[in-house]
Design goal:
The complex is a heterodimer of chains A (98) and B (543).
Chain A (H helix, E strand, L loop, with lengths): L1 E7 L5 E4 L4 E2 L12 H10 L3 E12 L2 E4 L2 H8 L16 H5 L1
Antiparallel strand pairs in A: 1-2, 1-4, 2-3, 4-5
Chain B lengths: L5 H23 L4 H10 L2 E3 L4 E5 L5 E3 H13 L4 E4 L5 E6 L4 H9 L17 E2 L14 H11 L14 E4 L13 E8 L2 E8 L12 E7 L3 H15 L10 H8 L1 H18 L5 H9 L19 H10 E3 L5 E6 L10 E3 H14 L3 E4 L5 E7 L3 H10 L14 E2 L14 H13 L2 H5 L4 E4 L13 E8 L2 E8 L11 E2 L6 H18 L6 H8 L2 H8 L1
Parallel strand pairs in B: 6-7, 7-8, 16-17, 17-18
Antiparallel strand pairs in B: 1-2, 2-5, 3-14, 4-5, 4-13, 8-9, 9-10, 11-12, 12-15, 14-15, 18-19, 19-20
Helix pairs in contact in B: 1-2, 1-4, 3-11, 5-9, 6-8, 7-8, 11-12, 13-15, 15-17
Classes of the chains: A alpha+beta (98), B alpha+beta (543).
């Protein structure tokens, strides 16, 4: 699958294209197929986000999983601060990331 | 400490308002990101892996209690309750909102701080010895020079768009505690026949092409130092490459021209500079120097310290170093708790350190390039009370310069440039050596970890260095041995094939076990490595 990600212009938060807008949760990301670049450009012009880019990923039982570790960490948060991640209760974050 | 005059304050205040307007225009759509990006970077605001990151300058690492308290306030009010002290003696906040950035800069300006020139191809924050002014072995106090250079380099119109970023360090001791020769320009103040001047080095740096700066000038008088540094910059600005950012640092120019030719060109420019009368008047240096005069030390203080408490005695031996003044000591606060994040401090810890500086250290702190904090003026009689308060707040780790006192960049946990995580590796190594108790036996061992080739974690300069790389989408770690950022400056050598996250921890233990087995009296890890060479260490790792 193709996932569109960016940062919120005002807050800087990592966001994922969820079909009808941006979500802070990777689990809500949808497959943008070949529309990612177009949506990203449109949203940047609308001043909602910056730094949009399309990544490869796969749909798993736990939701969308980016292909590259860097994007998995973007989706999760810093592995060394579980309290600041999207999975604060998870035991071994490294397992999810690696 | 230096205090802003009206001119300094007006300049910083004006910059805050300018940036406030720029942010407003960006949010209103009057500036595109392409137009805005260089403006935010000029104010230290990056876009990192998770959010905007703000890098705040701490000039030559020196802070007052009030300034430190403000850093804690910013961590609590605008970030997620913590900050990260960096290898450039600065602090970074990882979770900044663009809309808050102008208010943060205004708060910083209220305590004579800013984030100007913490990014971009300009002269960055001047770094220095964290023991400046209190070390017994100084030829002169480097801080007035660092401050003069700060003022000279701030908004310097000729050097605002250099080929690449530019870092300057000033020290004044034979013992180099600032990795001076790994800077674009390194300045070592020296005394010759009673006259203070400087030895100047140029073309050092880490990154993808690490180089130890060669000496460019054996001695330049203090009256001519600014002109000489300006001449070094002018030659670089004129001939440094702008076509390839990876070859744009001054080290490449010095290397490609050759030291002799670079020196010749600098001397030619220097001779020209001296005809222009651009050196700052002596009165200006004297004015600045008054801010760094020795404090009113109390006399007749005892040098005796009660070592009854063994944990305190351990901290004393590891983290407290000699002061030039009888009855006083320099106390190092480790930001490397075992299993913690190197360089991170919570808002509460930052505020506590501010309080402790006010109560015990004549209202002053220093940030070190090793990501620790120094209280430079502690009476020996106060050390025990100070340690008790530090210990209670998780700041009492007794591990200065041990294998657990690891420099680590933010790595892939925070940094968009990184290829691998640095912090988890640091945590695992520190825990391994604290658990097996070998850390104390090993003694001084500077271990430095970078999550990419840009080397913010100074891996080239580690007695043991670790470089995180991306190997087909997975994290891999190369091991380097034999580096040093000190007066015996050298660059580490890669041992061979890299390791995974657990493998690199084992590898570090293997090389330190070899050291423990082979060391001779008084040898540090680095000394043993230099005596034996790489071969036995390779054998231990891959044999």
């Amino acid at each position: 699958m193709k996932i569109l990600t960016a940062n919120d212009l005002t807050t800087g938060d990592v966001v994922w294209w969820a079909g009808d807008g941006w979500s802070r949760l990777l689990i809500e990301a949808i497959d943008v197929a070949d529309k990612g670049e177009e949506i990203g450009q449109r949203e940047e012009i609308a001043r909602r986000i910056i730094g949009a880019y399309v990544i490869d990923g796969e749909m798993t039982d736990d939701g969308p999983r980016p292909a590259h570790i860097k994007d998995r960490i973007r989706g999760l948060g810093p592995t060394v601060r579980p309290d600041l991640t999207s999975k604060p209760e998870a035991g071994d974050l490294a397992k999810w990331v690696i | 400490m230096y205090q802003y005059d009206n001119y300094d304050q007006a300049m910083v205040d004006a910059r805050v308002e300018e940036f406030r307007d720029q942010v407003k225009r960006r949010l209103e759509g009057k500036l595109t990101e392409e137009q805005f990006r260089p403006l935010r970077l000029m104010n230290g605001l990056y876009l990192q892996l998770h959010a905007y990151m703000l890098r705040v300058a701490v000039p030559y690492g020196t802070l007052s209690g009030k300034q430190m308290r403000m850093l804690g306030h910013i961590a609590r009010k605008y970030d997620k309750g913590y900050g990260h002290f960096t290898t450039r003696q600065n602090i970074q906040y990882n979770w900044i909102k663009l809309s808050d950035a102008p208010d943060i800069l205004a708060d910083l300006a209220s305590v004579e701080m800013h984030a100007i020139q913490t990014s971009g191809n300009c002269i960055r924050n001047i770094s220095s010895d964290q023991y400046a002014g209190v070390a017994a072995d100084e030829a002169a106090d480097p801080r007035p020079w660092a401050e003069l250079l700060r003022q000279w380099s701030s908004f310097h119109p000729e050097f605002s768009y250099l080929p690449r970023k530019f870092k300057i360090a000033v020290i004044a001791s034979e013992e180099d505690r600032a990795a001076m020769r790994l800077h674009d320009i390194g300045i070592e103040l020296v005394k010759r026949d009673g006259v203070v001047g400087a030895k100047v080095f140029a073309g050092g740096g880490m990154g993808r092409t690490p180089m130890v700066a060669p000496e460019i000038r054996d001695f330049v008088t203090e009256d001519e130092l600014i002109a000489y540094v300006e001449a070094c910059l002018r030659v670089y600005n004129r001939y440094g490459r702008r076509d390839n950012k990876y070859k744009a640092r001054i080290k490449i120019l010095v290397h490609e021209l050759g030291v002799d030719e670079y020196r010749r060109q600098v001397e030619e420019e220097f001779a020209h500079m001296n005809t222009l009368g651009l050196n700052p008047p002596r009165e200006e240096l004297a004015r600045i120097a008054t801010y760094f005069a020795d404090p009113a030390y109390e006399s007749g203080l005892s040098d005796e310290i009660d070592r009854t408490d063994p944990d305190f005695a351990l901290w004393l031996d590891r983290n407290v170093v000699a002061h030039k003044q009888a009855g006083y000591a320099i106390a190092n606060i480790s930001l490397k708790p075992i299993g913690g994040i190197p360089g991170d401090a919570s808002a509460e810890q930052i505020e506590l350190m501010a309080d402790l500086a006010e109560r015990y250290s004549l209202d002053e702190l220093r940030v070190t390039h090793a990501q620790n904090i120094v209280l430079p003026y502690v009476k020996k009689a106060d050390l025990y009370a100070l340690w008790q308060e530090l210990n209670e707040a998780g700041l009492g780790e007794a591990n200065l310069d041990l294998v657990t006192d690891i420099i680590a960049c933010p790595g892939l946990d925070y940094c968009s440039l990184a290829n691998a995580r640095s912090i988890p590796v640091a945590q695992k190594i520190a825990s391994r050596f604290a658990d097996n108790g070998k850390d104390a036996d090993i003694g001084e061992l500077k271990l430095k970890i970078s999550g990419c080739i840009n080397a913010c974690g100074h891996h080239h300069a580690g007695h043991i260095g670790i470089l995180g790389v991306d190997r087909k989408g997975t994290e891999n770690y190369q091991l380097l041995l034999g580096g040093s950022g000190a007066e015996d400056c050298s660059l580490g050598t890669i041992t061979g094939p890299g390791f995974d996250e657990n493998g690199i921890v084992d590898a570090v233990e293997k090389v330190t076990d070899l050291y423990l087995d082979q060391r001779q009296d008084g040898e540090r890890f680095l000394d043993t490595y230099r005596r034996l060479g790489m071969a036995p260490f390779k054998e231990a790792l891959y044999g």
